[in-house]
Amino acid sequence: MKLDVTKFTLRERKYAKTKIMLVNEFIERLKVSRLDDISIKNVCDTVEISEATFYNYFPKKVDLICFAINLLNLYFFHEVEKKEKNKYPLRMIEFIFKLVARNCSNSYLINEVAAVFTKEHIEPGVIDVTPLERFYAYPDIKDIENVSLVKIDTFFEKKIKAAIKVGQLPKRTDIQSAVVSLKAIFIGVPLALRSSKVISVENQYKKQLFLLWKGLANK
């Protein structure tokens, strides 16, 4: 059932809509620019708010990156559960890598995530995306409000455990090591291929995941 936005006040609707507009504008600019090169003033001019108002939403750029990650994860998790619900767990992991490659590999987003959180010595946590924010971000996805947000580590760990349970991976599999390997592929491949115009991120993801599954199966 689609969210009835009329149940919310005009102020609540305006706040959520503006927040999503800011994030979308940053994501668009990250397709051609690094985070440090993006002017908050220019973003605010495009969205038509003041710089002071921007900081009411995101006190620091890192807060915006955190929210953007959670917003994208919301979409990725929805698509994985919808399209791969009855598939094997490793297929679900592979599908989320495919989604990331197709939606993020042509931007600086993954690079900036790695750079920002290395510099800040933190990892992006789970930030709740409200029903209104979900609606304005994905107005055509009717059941987006039912998607549970978790860290990508948690998603990987859950699927690895499920893969062991159904026999896709051996019982002796070191779950934490497998999760670390997946995170390394997730972040490392786009970084390694940033200057390459020949090798696609999606194809390299496939190759690295194939090697990982093969290695885990043979341990």
Describe the SSE topology.
Blueprint: H1 10-29, H2 40-47, H3 51-57, H4 61-83, H5 89-104, H6 109-120, H7 131-137, H8 152-165, H9 175-192, H10 201-218
Helix pairs in contact: 1-2, 1-7, 4-5, 4-6, 5-8, 5-10, 8-9, 9-10
Description:
- This protein has one domain: Tetracycline Repressor, domain 2.
- 27% of the residues are buried.
- α1 crosses α2, α4 packs across α5 (89-104) and α9 packs antiparallel against α10.
- It has helices at 10-29, 40-47, 51-57, 61-83, 89-104, 109-120, 131-137, 152-165, 175-192, 201-218.
- The N and C termini lie far apart (47 Å).
- It is mainly α and 219 residues long.
- The radius of gyration is 19 Å and the shape is globular.
- The chain is built from 10 helices and no strands.
Major sheet characteristics: none
Level-2 CATH architecture: Orthogonal Bundle
Looking at the structure, what is the overall shape?
globular
How many domains? 1
Task: Kindly report the name of the CATH homologous superfamily.
Answer: Tetracycline Repressor, domain 2
